[in-house]
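User: Um, any thoughts?
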Amino acid sequence: MRVTRESELADVVREATGPLQSIGGGTRPVGQGGGTALQVAISGISLYEPGALTLIAGAGTPLRVIEDAVAAEGQRLPFEPAAWNALLGTTGESTIGGVVAANVSGPRRIQAGACRDSLIGVRFVDGTGAVVKNGGRVMKNVTGYDLVKLMAGSWGTLGVLSEVAFKLLPAAPAQATLVMDVPLAQAAKVLSQALGSQFDTSGAGWLPGVGVIVRLEGLADSVAYRAGKLAEVLAAYAPKILRDEGAALWRDLAEVKPLQGARGDLWRFSVKPSEGPEIAARLGGKVVLDWGGGLVWARVAEGTDARALAAPYTGHATCLSGAFAAFEPEPAPVAALSRGLRARFDPKGLFNPGKMG
């Protein structure tokens, strides 16, 4: 079932007698939510004010359209979202609503925050078919619930997004990437030094076959100066400084290119950065580190519970493809809050039942 207008979406939900599985471009089929497929194709940029660094768009608008529009004005989505088609083996085109629902956030998160931190407004249809609006064109919320933050990362379990609003940032005029051929076992030390420096890094990760990569962005003179100084700090690891050509490495990291097309189940761990390389070593196989080690992507043998391999760890794991439940059971107090929220916004249990417990 495909809807192209918010009123049509509200009617479908209001009249639904069974579960609905909301999808955007169908590029992130994570979890076991069932029901009738409901494709949200409410598309188009309804407001874009470059001077105010603000954009509002339908949830079904392709991510590519958003990025092209803001790039034409020298701006960008701060959180550097990436498509996962090649990683998950899906077709279709990533939509901005799907990005919000999954809180998709790329390497720049360590500096600019996650998707939810740039999201300033949402419109969605709740489980009764009512249209709910929260937030707006400024970063201010006065309602009892901060629904903007709740909807980001809810995977469509609280409502079906129809519109989203973002605060943008100017694109950086220049960037530099330091590349160090460092094994996984040493990555934590190098990443910690880079992130703990005074040089304002906007990305830090580890790619197999490449090593540690660290990014700096800003005005050209500032980037050149900071890159040189950081290279001095990390001189023991023989850093190589790349300019614009380094951008390809960050696309590879955001899209987790080393794990694309590989065999095995795909897992993602969000942990303490200091634990990342050690957890990655326990997992074995193919791994990628982002956010200075705080995000660990891994391919493990089919049917393997990667959580057991990685234990103990501080954080949470998501099974993005495989036989296990996508999301870990929540601690009892958090689970109680989640049940309360779903009862409030989806009293009939329509939206993606079973996806998040």
Remarks:
- The longest strand covers residues 160-167.
